[in-house]
């Protein structure tokens, strides 16, 4: 079965979404990520979505859910690389991705994760 | 060039992805900007999912519109599902009878230039959207 790969880098998990996900694949990613946060004792999740050409309400909800579940599991989430056209469309659709931190690129995203983890006293 | 009129069945969540791809192709063929492509594709994704989840599956008819002064894409989603008891309520932000956010129908309307919906209880639902370049 196809899967979105999750890479581990120290205490962080990295996910790059490169395909147009159907809904089950998105659900699978949500479940896999929460499992891995616990299994790898991860303190942060970075989701790279620059190749994602559409974020509809389902994918948007999945991203919000991942951030909420990660927070409950004592991990921070940062979403990186959203295309401007996707951002414009999301707002018009009515989605605000509440509780989701975003950064423009991977470097800034990693810096933000490190900051948040340090601020939470989890170095 | 893609055909002027094309019918894509919606029977699975893979078909929802296909609807997004077909909408993208047509929007590009009509010379839409990236933002306009993204809006049309996102609206198509919401409505295709509704057709699948609430209508029990159905189809979308994709049409290229060429008028003298403008070009557009029209998508008409039809299902033979249970129908929507209160269309005005279904169009409200945040209203849902399923597990979603209740943004599908209202969001798709905001992302389109023209929007129409007809629904009959026990017979099905037809939603048409048009976006112009």
Global structural class of chain B: alpha+beta
The tally of helices of chain B reads 4
| Average pLDDT taken over every residue of chain A | 93
Q: What fraction of the residues of chain A are assigned to beta strands by DSSP?
A: 15-25%
The greatest interface here is: A-B, 23 and 26 residues
The secondary structure category of chain A is: alpha/beta
Largest sheet strand order of chain A: 1-2-3-4-5
How is the biggest beta sheet of chain A arranged? 5 strands, mixed
Q: What is the multimeric organization of the chains shown? A: heterodimer
The named CATH superfamily of chain B: Histidine kinase-like ATPase, C-terminal domain
What's the SSE pattern of chain A? EEHEHEHEH
Helix count of chain A, per DSSP? 4
Write down the secondary-structure element order of chain B: EHHEEHHEE
Outline the biggest β-sheet of chain B. 5 strands, antiparallel
Distance between the termini of chain A: 36 Å
For the biggest β-sheet of chain B, the strand order reads: 1-2-3-5-4
How does this structure look, described?
The complex is a heterodimer of chains A (123) and B (133). In chain A, 37% of the residues are buried. Helix content of chain A is 46%, strand content 18%. Chain A has helices at 23-39, 57-72, 84-93, 106-119; strands spanning 6-9, 12-16, 44-48, 76-80, 101-103. With 123 residues, chain A is of the alpha/beta class. Chain B has one domain: Heat Shock Protein 90 (2-Layer Sandwich), CATH 3.30.565. In chain B, strands 1-2-3-5-4 form a five-stranded antiparallel sheet, covered by helices on one side. The two termini of chain B are 17 Å apart. The model of chain B has no long low-confidence stretch (mean pLDDT 94). At the A-B interface, helix 2 and helix 3 of A face helix 1, helix 2 and helix 4 of B.
């Amino acid at each position: 079965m196809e899967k979105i790969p999750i890479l581990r880098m120290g205490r962080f998990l990295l996910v790059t979404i490169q395909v147009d996900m159907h809904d089950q694949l998105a659900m699978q990613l949500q479940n896999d990520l929460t499992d891995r946060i616990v299994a790898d004792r991860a303190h942060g999740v970075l989701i790279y979505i620059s190749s994602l050409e559409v974020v509809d309400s389902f994918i948007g909800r999945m991203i919000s859910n991942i951030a909420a579940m990660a927070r409950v599991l004592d991990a921070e989430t940062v979403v990186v690389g959203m295309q401007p056209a996707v951002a414009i469309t999301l707002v018009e659709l009515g989605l605000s991705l509440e509780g989701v931190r975003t950064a423009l690129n991977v470097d800034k995203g990693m810096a933000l994760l490190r900051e948040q983890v340090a601020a939470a006293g989890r170095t | 060039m893609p055909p002027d009129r094309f019918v894509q069945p919606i029977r699975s969540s893979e078909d929802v992805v296909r609807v997004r791809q077909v909408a993208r192709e047509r929007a590009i063929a009509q010379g839409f900007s990236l933002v306009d492509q993204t809006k049309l594709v996102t609206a198509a994704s919401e409505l295709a999912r509704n057709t699948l989840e609430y209508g029990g599956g159905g189809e979308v008819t994709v049409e290229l519109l060429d008028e003298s002064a403008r070009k557009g894409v029209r998508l008409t989603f039809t299902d033979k599902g249970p129908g929507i008891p209160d269309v005005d309520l279904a169009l409200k932000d945040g209203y849902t009878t399923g597990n979603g956010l209740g943004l599908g129908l209202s969001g798709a309307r905001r992302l389109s230039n023209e929007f129409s919906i007809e629904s009959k209880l026990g017979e099905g639902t037809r939603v048409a959207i048009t976006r112009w370049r």
